[in-house]
Amino acid sequence: MGLHLKTAAAIFTRSPSAFVRAHLHALHSGRCSLFIPDHDHGLLREAVQYCDRVTVYSDQPADPALCEYEKISVADLPTHRSIPDELAPETAVAVLFTSGSTDRAKLVAKTFRNFAGEARSLDKIFRTPSDRIRVLTTLPFEHMYGYMYGFFWPRLMGLDAPDSRITLPTALTKELQLSDLPVWLITTPLHLHAFAETGLRTDKVARVFSATSALSSALATDAKRCFGVAVTDIYGSTETGTIASRQMPNEVDLWECIPGRSLSQCADGRVQLDCVDFSEPELLNDVLELSSPQQFRVLGRSADLVKVAGKRSSLGALNAALLAAPGVRDGSFWVPDQQAQDADLVRLVAFAVLREGTSQEAVIAHLRTHIYPVFLPRPLIIVDRLPRDTVGKLPRESLRELYTACTLQGSASTVRAD
Amino acid sequence: MIERLESESNEDTARRMELSDSLKRVLVQRLSLRINPDQITNDAPLFDKGLGLDSVDALELAVAVETEFGVPVTEADVAELQSINRLADFIIKRQLEQGTFNA
What's the 3-state SS for A283-346? Predict the structure, then answer.
């Protein structure tokens, strides 16, 4: 890995406002911020290998595990309100860690050029310059999507954005009541589901952005009922930032690249992203069906490709079929470990959270008409909730644990598809 | 007079026990906890070292309290929801304020 940082700031803050204060100070003092997820000391040690000097920014009492590092108390820092405008394009702004449904945590370094380019592209398609907007987010700022949409873009463009994060429906209701400006809500399917369930209704939200996991048409319809606007679903990753968007619910399921991004098929079938803000193209992990360099359908992740009895599909495509079944609130396919080794013997498991009155048989009947029979789940396990993380992702390990728990407990409601 | 007060007190105790049992069932169902509701003690911490609930559970718990018991939960309230007893206190207090406790 080519990463080398002279001075870095490890952000170990708990409150969003402390994060903003610490990160802005790091930016103004020439330190690249390390966004260490969950205050993971192991990840800090890993990141430190690439840094000459690391300062820990903390809003917590002294932590003995961090005594080897120079430490700054966030409370003692001066308050900066904006991103410095004199940063050189190649200035390293932050190192993020990917997590969740792909691989183990991996370091991703981002420059001012990466972030500013993406923010300007987003601003170009989603906002007219005269728009005055208040941006509210349900995500932590140290997450790539939460950072770009809730922190960087608003502050680069001078939009109104509080140094706080909304975690509950009541907090959103209160913020909406207080806001004199139209609101943009940066959120996830996890939170949209909570807003819909509490029956929230408002006409103060001008735009809703959703990312981090698949947004089903049913949830998008529920969200539209809450906010009166379609949901702008975002496609991207920590490595690439935003690649494309689509409006949900929709008739035609096509993603449209944001300005400055284009896609092409490589000889090996993989898709390459060219971006004006990157120094080199990025190979994507997902299987895409390109209609043009700017338009595509997502078929699934390369790592999620499954082949059963000579038929190919992807967990992404199967999940989309499951989520589209009437009465399915949430769901996911999963390949059991012992079977993942041998593709010919693979039998998929699916988990589903059902609305009241929906039967397992109805879900299976829907799947029979939408996927090849060899991919039908064996079994379909009905659960009360999927183990999604704080941003709505479903780590494989959590699905493994859920499967084990359901198997051991033996009380989960299951039905075989065959 | 004393008999009436005792009777009302017994009724309140019974309602509180009913609410605590109901909360345990809701917790287990909504948060997919792999335990029997009866195994949750009224004073056991819900988060971290107790039942091990996390911030996603806090969101689900807040939605459950609002939709099942008619009591909206604010971010400031979450700190109060540390055990079944405290959750029951919170719901009863808010329902009394709303005039819905005996409804």
Answer: ECCEEEEEEECCEEEEEEEHHHEEEECCEEEEHHHHHHHHHCCCCEEEEEEECCHHHHCCHHHC
B74:A174 CB<8 A: yes
Average pLDDT over residues A77-97: 91
Across residues A134-148, what is the average pLDDT? 95
**Interface touch B56/A198, C-beta < 8 Å:** no
More confident residue, B6 or B88: B88
| A91-105, A197-211, A391-405, range with greatest mean pLDDT | A197-211
Q: What is the pLDDT of residue A410?
A: 58
> Tokens representing A355?
């609305």
pLDDT in tens, A331-383: 999 888 655 544 445 678 999 999 888 999 999 999 988 887 778 888 899 99
Of A147-151, A210-214, A292-296, give the lowest mean pLDDT range.
A210-214
CATH superfamily of B2-98: ACP-like (1.10.1200.10)
**A171/B67 touch (CB, cutoff 8 Å), yes or no:** no
B96 vs B9: CA distance, rounded Å: 15
B54 CA to chain A: closest CA distance, Å? 9
| Tally of CB atoms within 10 A around B63 | 21
* Residues ≥6 apart with Cβ < 8 Å to A318: A300, A306, A333, A348, A350, A371, A375
Alpha carbon A186 to its chain centroid, in Å, reads 11
> Which backbone phi and psi does A163 adopt, to 5 degrees?
-85, 35
In chain B, whose CA is at the least distance from the CA of A388? B56
Quick check: A14 and A163 in contact, CB under 8 A? no
Q: Which chain B residue's Cα is nearest to A393?
A: B56
User: Nearest CB to B34: which of A169, A198, A409?
Assistant: A409
The complex scores an ipTM of 0.79
* A51 burial type by CB count under 10 A (0-12 exposed, 13-18 middle, 19+ buried): buried
Would you list the domain boundaries of chain B?
A: 2-98
The reported pLDDT for the residue numbered A157 is 93
List, for residues A171-180, the tens digit of each pLDDT value.
999 999 999 9
Arithmetic mean of pLDDT over chain A: 88
Q: Which strand ranges, in their side-by-side order, compose the sheet holding A183-187?
A: A134-137, A183-187, A205-210, A231-237, A241-248, A255-257, A295-301, A286-292
What are the tokens at A160? 């109104």
| Length of chain A, in residues | 418
- Residue A251 Rama label (left phi>0; alpha psi -120 to 50; beta): alpha
Task: Name beta bridge partners: A301.
Answer: A286
Task: Return the H-helix or E-strand segment holding A73.
Answer: strand A70-73
Considering only CB atoms, B63 lies closest to which of A194, A389, A390, namely A194
For A170, the closest of B29, B67, B73 (CB atoms) is B73
CB-based contact B60 A194, cutoff 8 Å: yes
